[in-house]
Design brief:
Elements: H1 2-20, E1 23-29, H2 48-54, E2 58-64, H3 69-78, H4 82-85, E3 104-105, H5 120-126, E4 130-135, E5 150-152, H6 181-195, E6 201-206, H7 218-227, H8 236-258, E7 265-271, H9 294-297, E8 301-304, E9 312-319, H10 323-331, H11 346-349, E10 360-364, E11 381-385, E12 389-394, E13 400-404, H12 420-436, E14 443-444
Parallel strand pairs: 1-6, 1-7, 2-9, 4-5, 4-6
Antiparallel strand pairs: 2-8, 3-14, 7-8, 10-11, 11-12, 12-13
């Protein structure tokens, strides 16, 4: 009888703990720039649902990701930085450009993460969470190999063949002809939440929006054509895609509230990199996807954690690798076997500290873009960003760029020659980090001549 009562007490304690654990809704959007949302000053783009959420969330002004999709996503779900994932670019074998365009030999990038490892969803599934993935994956061939039970639309491809059904996506059953992908993924997300409302769940809702190709409903495109005052700068189709993303985001949040789950659900909103330079504009920042200028790596990010986070904006530096340890702490889940490179944001969100890291590092030892295209030809580089200064080191020219982000957030004035001591100090810190993480570096062609 004593053993039976003890077992009952243990089951009751476990049930209570499960009830207290929050569910997690991670919204990971694609190619949405920091300046593409109203709460960061956008006026042409319409994001009323995202902006309303920002009013009650902790908004991170200085949230950073990798410059391109798959490296960011691999880092988020493994908790590892790019030297440890081996994924630097969306292209294998050193990125883009022809051999004659490359003055040095770039590092070979992996196309997918291939090592056996406990990813974020594995950890939460082991802790008893129902796990679901809806939308773009671009980390391995299928998220169900990495801890997710449901997969609706996630595979190795980085962009949708079509935003309208038929989707030509082997992981998403086609809807009626002409069905719009943002609406479909919203419905898939809501259905998962409804099925799992009685237990803690982890849903990653990862819209393909607003990755190219630029495709939207004609009525929405026309609406933004009528609003456009600077057609050379603003693309009405891109604006229509952002509006559809916002509508779908609002639909998922409305479902969470209607189901009575809002007070025990952590909601995180972030993007995997900055705006694509062929789609939009990052002003007042500089650069775009593929670059380590602020427009390429600073991303819109906010979190709502009931009972913990506050409605405020913070300039604390955070990295996309920080979400893995953060969610483990939020949910009380066990740590994986591998060492996480990220840092938990829980002390920051609980106002126990105002700083969790003093620097962000970016290692892109590959080429990006095409020399003759509209997109800037980006040669291999590494960068370190601190609260005030950023240093970018080029492996082709062996020259550094230094920017004062406090006084020049648009990175228009290179101060490397004006402040050589600061440049040397940051370069030394960057080199220390590269060595500590055994980061492979590009090589000179002269080595093989």
């Amino acid at each position: 009888m004593v053993r039976f009562l003890a077992a009952l007490l243990l089951l009751a304690a476990s049930a209570t703990h499960a009830a207290e654990r929050p569910s997690v809704l991670l919204i990971l959007v694609d190619d949405l720039g920091w300046a593409d949302v109203g709460y960061n000053g956008a006026s042409y783009y319409l994001t009323p649902n995202i902006d309303a959420f920002a009013q009650r969330a902790t908004v991170f002004n200085r949230s950073y990701a990798m410059p391109t999709c798959s490296p960011s996503r691999a880092s988020l779900f493994t908790g590892l930085n790019s030297p440890h994932t081996g994924i630097y670019h969306v292209e294998a074998f050193g990125g883009k450009g022809s051999e004659q365009d490359r003055r040095i030999i770039p590092v070979k990038s992996k196309l997918y993460y291939q090592q056996p490892i406990t990813m974020l969803a594995d950890s939460l599934a082991e802790a008893g969470y129902a796990t679901g993935y809806v939308g773009k994956w671009h980390v391995t061939h299928d998220p169900t190999h990495n801890g997710f039970t449901l997969n609706a639309g996630g595979w190795g491809k980085g962009h949708p063949p079509s935003y309208f059904s038929p989707y030509k996506n082997p992981k998403l059953v086609d809807g009626p002809p002409g069905e719009y992908l943002p609406e479909r993924l919203m419905k898939e997300s809501i259905a998962f939440i409804e099925r799992n409302k009685e237990q803690p769940f982890f849903l990653c809702y990862a819209p393909y929006s607003v990755h190219r190709p630029l495709q939207a409903r004609e009525a929405d495109i026309q609406r933004f054509k009528e609003r456009s005052k600077e057609p050379a700068r603003y693309n009405p189709t891109y604006a229509a895609m952002i509006a559809a993303l916002d509508d779908a985001f609002g639909g998922v949040l409305h479902a969470v509230e209607e189901l009575g789950l809002a007070e025990n659900t952590v909601i995180i909103f972030t993007s995997d990199n900055g705006v694509n330079g062929l789609s939009g504009d990052s002003t007042p920042l500089r650069g775009h996807k593929g670059t380590c200028y602020e427009g390429g790596v600073r991303v819109p990010t906010m979190v709502f954690w009931p009972g913990h986070s506050r409605a405020e904006r913070t300039d604390a530096l955070i990295d996309i690798i920080d979400w893995y340890p953060t969610l483990l702490d939020m949910t009380g889940s066990g740590k994986p076997d591998h060492q996480l490179d990220g840092r938990s944001l829980v002390p920051l969100l609980n106002h126990e500290t105002d700083l969790v890291r003093d620097a962000i590092y970016c290692h892109m030892p590959c080429y990006n873009g095409q020399p003759q295209s509209k997109q800037v030809w980006q040669t291999p580089y590494s960068a370190i960003t601190q609260s005030r200064y950023k240093l970018i080191y080029s492996y082709e020219t062996h020259e550094a760029q230094l920017y004062d982000l406090e006084n020049d957030p648009g990175e228009s004035i290179n101060m490397a020659t004006s402040y050589p001591e600061i440049a040397r100090s940051l370069k030394s810190e960057l080199e220390d980090w590269l060595r500590a993480n055994q980061a492979p570096l590009p090589r000179s062609k002269d080595t093989f001549q």
